[in-house]
């Protein structure tokens, strides 16, 4: 293959839509072939700035930022000053590399340099305006967003950028004018509503932001981005999201997607009764014909310990689709019923359908554990740790099996030490550090960890944090604090009855509380959380 043919091959591969940007869709063999071509080109001409630029793009698409930076530095070094278009692209790429490596000041300098070669570039101006904004240079950001509007007088990016600056300048009236104008220009574009939602969030107007997210879905029912924004918002302001969706349902009672999103969010925050009502409404009103709704219902019924209804729903779902996660749900239900053999069978079916599924691997390990094969369960947890090395729960359960069931405490301590060394902020409950410390016998350190988390008054919108606190305090033998946290959890709506009454793995459950008379009494006081 001659030099020109090689360059044509590498260029055609580089320019295939999405090839560099979407690494998941690329074949590693193709990447290796392209890199080989670039390497050969540079062996022939070590000053070929075009090849350095293209290889930098390749590395950037693979998240290999240091290698990309080295190549783009060489590209800039060897590019003649007369090739202004290439220099603009090179500085823009290096700016993106700096952004990805959290070097915003350097990125800003490079974007400004790229604009010297291409002063009317809409994309570069927008990027510089955003960088100035993020660095707190609001006057300069405003100037760039205003330049955008002169290039395109109905610029959505300009109006939203100016609105964000106005919020920072505490000029909320002007900010509202800008975002309303943006929506008026693009009333059929979901992105306009999502941009307005982002500004409204910045203003602290979460209810208005939710309304905009719902409007984005109304104009584009396939807007996955809008749904994701609603889900994210629910993690911080659940009530605003549910209220907004309820208002939308009142105005449009036959739009199935609104019920589905409300149910999905309610389920994600352990409000299973509400989720079941919405899923059943979809089925009863024939708003959707989707097997996933039956699977979701099965999950909800399982969490409420209604195993008969759960089996009925998951069997309906499996009758329409042999999805791996559905087999996992079946396995969970049978394991809860004490039917270990079908539970194991369904877990195996799940792994056949989805061999890399972490959910299926965990369920298979729990079935093996219930069957008393501790060595095999430990090995399965080991596979989970290999696949997801940053999940502390996997270390804790494996260490518990090794230490409590297999009586190999030194090996258990090794896994717990690895768990404690994971890169988590130790003040984050998701580190599970206190649970690891408790299993290692470091009771006071475990108590200090959970005391600090609760004292910080976490934004526990659905009670999950206080459930975990109740679990850890119960294993530390402090039932007073455990029951206090249990009450706090229930008050926040943590309605996973399976977790409260059945789950008993390692020290991750409230099992020690169940023999205390206060336990059932407290659940009875909050029985409305579980009644359908």
Structural notes for this entry:
- By secondary structure, the chain is mainly α.
- Among the domains are: 1-119, Serine Threonine Protein Phosphatase 5, Tetratricopeptide repeat; 459-532.
- It has helices spanning 3-14, 28-44, 49-61, 65-78, 84-100, 104-117, 122-134, 138-151, 156-168, 172-185, 190-202, 206-219, 224-234, 238-251, 256-268, 272-284, 291-303, 307-320, 324-336, 340-353, 358-370, 374-387, 392-405, 409-420, 433-439, 443-455, 464-475, 479-491, 497-501, 517-525.
- The longest helix is centred in the N-terminal third of the chain and has 17 residues, at 28-44.
**Beta-strand residue fraction:** under 5%
Shape: globular
Radius of gyration: 28 Å
CATH homologous superfamily assignment of the domain at 1-119: Tetratricopeptide repeat domain
Count of strand segments: 0
Tell me the major beta sheet: none
Structural class: mainly alpha
CATH class of the domain at 1-119: Mainly Alpha
CATH topology type of the domain at 1-119: Serine Threonine Protein Phosphatase 5, Tetratricopeptide repeat
Query: Secondary-structure element sequence?
Result: HHHHHHHHHHHHHHHHHHHHHHHHHHHHHH
Average predicted confidence as pLDDT: 92
Runs with pLDDT <50, length 5+? 1-26
CATH architecture of the domain at 1-119: Alpha Horseshoe
Helix content: over 70%
**Termini separation:** 71 Å
Number of helices: 30
